[in-house]
């Protein structure tokens, strides 16, 4: 016993001493008084060029599928993936009498869609109030009310247009951010296809310099539709410099839009979030960022709210892309996010096919929930 | 928002002061708070329902109504129940009796299977096994590539006969079942004793891919099928887990991305719905960021309480036995703690992994989370540089370090004199602490914690003026104990105050109950050895 106790104390002590010290030293190296006279030291090596030669575009880029028919597929898919919610609610609401148990179960059904405790409760309460005021217990009517309340929560009046064009000569700058494994690069690729289908000129920036082969993946997407990808040859290059290069290239060539893919980062890693802030700041030296899209995985639970809040704080997100909606997950957290942060869901990803990205349609979304 | 369950409960109970016992209505309110906390932690609705009923039953019993502090008592019950569901024992990998042990990984896209394959390989290699990674994910672009990179980082060979797809537009051509089968055969031929088969991510509703997973499983007859699930997953955890249970009938669960700030209620859902144990947790991007899963710690996380045990365990795992004996001897002889010891200590600590994580595991660290996030492990190198700039004589006898020596040390290490001073000062405190502990005086109230931790928070560090104050205040509160904390919470009522008191207040009061300022894990060590 004594041995391990000493050992533990010893370690604890070491950790404390080191920790305390490290905090002192955390201030890091300081600049000499009066600052540096030049931006580079005398013995500095010349900065490597951030921009590498782009791969040649294929001679015959393919045409992505038109945007128009996508919503039909969205509905078909949504009604499949969300049928549980819809049916569950319908079964409940077609009962004879509406008592407390029914309300509890409605709330739980909403909770199951990852709507979150707060919004679910509010939704049920407003529904209760309306039922009381209107004095109805007709299930069809209640269903109609539920639909209205859900639509009100999702708020169709929000502006869900992507700001793809910059002011004047500036290209529109779209920054795509999110945590690991939600499908950012894929979203950028799919969105690029949509833009090409709408005949916009476009540049992609592969600012994910961390994950192995992420730039390759993006470039493959770009090449398929004849869009240039600005990337760095080195792995682990400064993502901000790649983003800057991409924006600069877009401006020089008069492209309509530049879309920048960033590396996945968990929102509680302060260092990585700072890096993301820098990417945005540096890019804005060329042209203001017109659209910051946060990609959220439909399976994400209440942590999605934390993600949205932190990313909103760091890069001021202007829209949400909800991916992987083709599974059983319902992605209800976006309703809560929209409710709390006022950031609209703009796009939904519906599968692994290259054209499985559709604009978010609130009424269609809710209809699909209840159909 | 209230952060931890204990805060929520404290706020529920604040109206109950003066009441002799809890009425059923009080318990109902409590259970509602628990339910809400669990839902916020993404525990699945059916599981919450069941759980809340169980808690209610126990909370109406005498153990709560007769307790001095009902809120604490309820938290304790919740904690116990959570642990019960998560599984009491830590489950280990079942090894095959003959031939290689086959482990298959399955899960949704983006859950982190490929990364985990590398981590698991590295972990098993560290335990003296000879693992082989098999790249059966021929679906996702570059998955085979990624596994090769990961395998290289982990120093584990990878069997990848098929290049897989390199972009979204290639149709997957190879047969993953065949690759898995060949992989196992290769492992047998080359005498690997563990085979880890990485499979493609798939959705629970995708019948075709699920069948493929089942085929792989049938072809290689794995000892373990691990279901990898993202800690951030929400209510869908239940559907997915059930789909995978039907599909591949997994034997264990791995939680990935636990280094995020998701509370990971999914762990509870999956364990409770499928009855399968959670075996591992993946906690970062490096190949070493991988641990065995501990139900008790996860329970605390779901409730948003702290974790000390892991720290102690990591210390034990990586500690050099000879070094420990030497220290113990030194300790017994009541010799002075010198810079030489400090260097050795530093090396040991470094072996334990990231300093940031260690610090985060210290009690009360939650207060400094922000500073911790900014903490760079290389800072330790700078401390080491300072010590290394001392002469051997100075290291053994720090007392001789005078002004000019300090200036020299600072120059030698690229630090400033004030940094050297700080180190000396801190070191002096540590020396005193060691001495006191050696004499057996320091133990009961652990001056290390009292002196060290507030100091840490109070450091000019990242320049968070407000933070500094909060951390200091907290140090004081540890001693002032429970009533003060509750008063503060009552008076404040506002969320800000409640939050500050939160994780700290919780810990403070636990300490009080233990009648000494030792973190929880310690008494376990006192007890069973």
Automatic annotation (TrEMBL), chain A:
Q: Which GO terms describe its cellular component?
A: cytoplasm; plasma membrane
Q: Name one GO molecular function term.
A: signal recognition particle binding
Q: What is its main location?
A: membrane
Against PROSITE patterns, the record matches this protein to: SRP54 (PS00300)
User: Where does the record place it?
Assistant: Cell membrane; Cytoplasm
Q: Which UniProt keywords are listed?
A: Cell membrane, Cytoplasm, GTP-binding, Hydrolase, Membrane, Nucleotide-binding, Receptor, Transmembrane, Transmembrane helix
InterPro entries found in the cross-reference section: AAA+_ATPase (IPR003593), P-loop_NTPase (IPR027417), Signal_recog_particl_SRP54_hlx (IPR013822), SR_rcpt_FtsY (IPR004390), SRP/SRP_N (IPR036225), SRP54_GTPase_dom (IPR000897), SRP54_N_sf (IPR042101)
Domain SRP54-type proteins GTP-binding: from-to ranges: 344-357
Task: Spell out the family assignment given in the record's similarity comment.
Answer: Belongs to the GTP-binding SRP family. FtsY subfamily.
Q: What is the designated name of this protein?
A: Signal recognition particle receptor FtsY
Q: List the source organism.
A: Rothia santali
From TrEMBL, chain B:
Where is it mainly found? cytoplasm
Question: Which is an annotated Pfam family here?
Answer: SRP54
Q: What is its EC number?
A: 3.6.5.4
According to its record, what are the GO cellular component terms?
signal recognition particle
Q: Which CDD domains match?
A: SRP_G
Q: Name a GO molecular-function annotation.
A: 7S RNA binding
What positions does the domain SRP54-type proteins GTP-binding occupy? Answer: 277-290
* Subcellular locations according to the entry: Cytoplasm
- The UniProt annotation puts the region (Disordered) at 461-517
- The record's top EC class is hydrolase
Q: Catalyzes what?
A: GTP + H2O = GDP + phosphate + H(+)
Q: Which residues bind GTP?
A: 107-114, 198-202, 256-259
Q: Does the keyword Cell inner membrane apply?
A: no
User: Do you know which InterPro entries this protein is assigned to?
Assistant: AAA+_ATPase, P-loop_NTPase, Signal_recog_part_SRP54_M_sf, Signal_recog_particl_SRP54_hlx, Signal_recog_particle_SRP54_M, SRP, SRP54, SRP54_GTPase_dom
Quaternary structure and interacting proteins, as annotated: Part of the signal recognition particle protein translocation system, which is composed of SRP and FtsY.
PANTHER family, per this entry? Answer: SIGNAL RECOGNITION PARTICLE 54K PROTEIN SRP54, SIGNAL RECOGNITION PARTICLE SUBUNIT SRP54
* The family this protein is said to belong to: Belongs to the GTP-binding SRP family. SRP54 subfamily.
Q: What does this protein do?
A: Involved in targeting and insertion of nascent membrane proteins into the cytoplasmic membrane. Binds to the hydrophobic signal sequence of the ribosome-nascent chain (RNC) as it emerges from the ribosomes. The SRP-RNC complex is then targeted to the cytoplasmic membrane where it interacts with the SRP receptor FtsY.
Q: What is this protein called?
A: Signal recognition particle protein
Originating species:
Rothia santali
């Amino acid at each position: 016993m004594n041995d391990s106790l000493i050992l533990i104390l010893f370690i604890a002590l070491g950790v404390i001493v080191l920790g305390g010290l490290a905090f002192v030293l955390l201030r890091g190296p300081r600049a000499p008084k009066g600052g540096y006279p030049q931006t580079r030291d005398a013995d500095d090596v010349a900065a490597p060029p951030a921009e590498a030669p782009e791969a040649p575009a294929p001679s015959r880029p393919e045409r992505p599928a038109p945007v128009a028919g996508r919503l039909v597929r969205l509905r078909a898919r949504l009604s499949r993936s969300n049928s549980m919610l819809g049916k569950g609610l319908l079964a409940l609401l077609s009962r004879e009498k509406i008592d407390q148990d029914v309300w509890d179960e409605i709330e739980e059904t909403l909770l199951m869609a990852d709507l979150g405790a707060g919004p679910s409760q509010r939704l049920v309460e407003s529904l209760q109030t309306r039922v009381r005021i209107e004095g109805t217990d007709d299930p069809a009517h209640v269903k109609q009310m539920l639909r209205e309340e859900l639509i009100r929560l999702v708020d169709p009046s929000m502006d869900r247009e992507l700001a793809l064009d910059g002011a004047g000569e500036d290209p529109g700058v779209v920054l795509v951010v999110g945590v690991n494994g939600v499908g950012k690069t894929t979203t950028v690729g799919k969105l690029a296809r949509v833009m090409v289908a709408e005949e916009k000129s476009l540049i992609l920036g592969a600012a994910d310099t961390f994950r192995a082969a992420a730039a390759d993946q993006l470039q493959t997407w770009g090449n398929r539709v004849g869009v240039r990808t600005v990337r760095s040859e080195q792995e682990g290059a400064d993502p901000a410099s790649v983003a800057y290069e991409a924006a600069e290239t877009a401006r020089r060539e008069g492209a309509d839009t530049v879309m920048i893919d960033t590396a996945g980062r968990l929102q509680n890693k302060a260092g990585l979030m700072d890096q993301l802030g820098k990417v945005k700041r540096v890019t804005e030296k060329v042209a203001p960022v017109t659209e910051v899209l946060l990609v959220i995985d439909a399976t994400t639970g209440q942590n999605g709210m934390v993600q949205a809040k932190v990313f909103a704080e760091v890069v001021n997100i202007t829209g949400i892309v909800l991916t992987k909606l083709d599974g059983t997950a319902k992605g209800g957290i976006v309703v809560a996010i929209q409710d709390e942060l006022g950031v609209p869901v703009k796009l939904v990803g519906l599968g692994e096919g290259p054209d499985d990205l559709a604009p978010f349609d609130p009424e269609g979304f809710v209809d699909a929930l209840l159909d | 928002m209230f952060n931890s369950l204990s805060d929520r409960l404290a706020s529920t109970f604040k109206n109950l002061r003066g009441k002799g016992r809890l009425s059923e209505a009080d318990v109902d309110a409590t259970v509602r708070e628990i339910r809400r906390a669990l839902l916020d932690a993404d525990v699945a609705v059916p599981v919450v329902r069941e759980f809340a009923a169980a808690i209610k039953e126990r909370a109406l019993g005498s153990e709560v109504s007769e307790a001095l502090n009902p809120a604490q008592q309820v938290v304790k019950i919740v904690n116990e129940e959570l642990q019960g569901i998560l599984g009491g024992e830590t489950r280990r990998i079942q090894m095959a009796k003959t031939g290689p042990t086959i482990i298959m990984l399955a899960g949704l896209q983006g859950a982190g299977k490929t990364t985990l394959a590398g981590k698991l390989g590295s972990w098993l290699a560290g335990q003296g096994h000879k693992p082989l990674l098999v790249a059966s994910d021929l679906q996702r672009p570059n998955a085979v590539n990624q596994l090769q990179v990961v395998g290289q980082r982990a120093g584990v060979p990878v069997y990848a006969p098929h290049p897989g797809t390199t972009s979204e537009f290639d149709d997957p051509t190879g047969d993953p079942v065949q690759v898995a089968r060949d992989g196992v055969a290769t492992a047998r031929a080359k005498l690997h004793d563990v085979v880890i088969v990485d499979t493609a991510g798939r959705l629970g509703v995708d019948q075709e891919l699920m069948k493929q997973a089942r085929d792989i499983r049938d072809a290689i007859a794995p000892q373990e099928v691990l279901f990898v699930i993202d800690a951030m997953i929400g209510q869908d955890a239940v559907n997915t887990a059930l789909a995978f249970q039907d599909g591949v009938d997994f034997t264990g669960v791995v939680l990935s991305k636990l280094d995020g700030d998701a509370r990971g209620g999914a762990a509870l859902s999956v364990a409770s719905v499928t009855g399968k144990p959670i075996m591992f947790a993946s906690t970062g991007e490096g190949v070493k960021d991988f641990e065995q899963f501990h139900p008790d710690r996860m329970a605390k996380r779901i409730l948003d309480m702290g974790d000390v045990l892991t720290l102690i365990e990591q210390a034990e795992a990586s500690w050099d036995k000879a070094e420990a004996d030497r220290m113990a001897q030194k300790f017994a002889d009541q010799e002075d703690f010198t810079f030489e010891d400090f260097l050795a200590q530093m090396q040991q600590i470094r072996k334990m992994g990231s300093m940031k994580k260690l610090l985060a595991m210290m009690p009360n660290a939650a207060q400094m989370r922000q500073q911790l996030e900014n903490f760079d492990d290389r800072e330790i190198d700078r401390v080491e540089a300072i010590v290394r700039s001392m002469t051997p004589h100075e290291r053994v006898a720090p007392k001789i370090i005078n002004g000019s020596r300090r200036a020299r040390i600072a120059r030698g290490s690229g630090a400033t004199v004030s940094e050297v001073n700080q180190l000396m000062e801190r070191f002096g405190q540590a020396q005193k602490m060691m001495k006191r502990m050696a004499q057996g005086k320091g133990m009961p109230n652990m001056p290390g914690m009292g002196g060290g931790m507030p100091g840490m928070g109070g450091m000019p560090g990242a320049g968070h003026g407000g933070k500094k104050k909060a951390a200091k205040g907290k140090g004081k509160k540890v001693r002032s104990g429970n009533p003060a904390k509750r008063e503060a919470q009552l008076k404040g009522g506002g969320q800000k105050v409640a939050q500050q008191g939160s994780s700290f207040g919780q810990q403070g009061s636990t300490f009080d109950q233990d009648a000494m300022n030792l973190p929880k894990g310690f008494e376990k060590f006192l007890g069973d050895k």
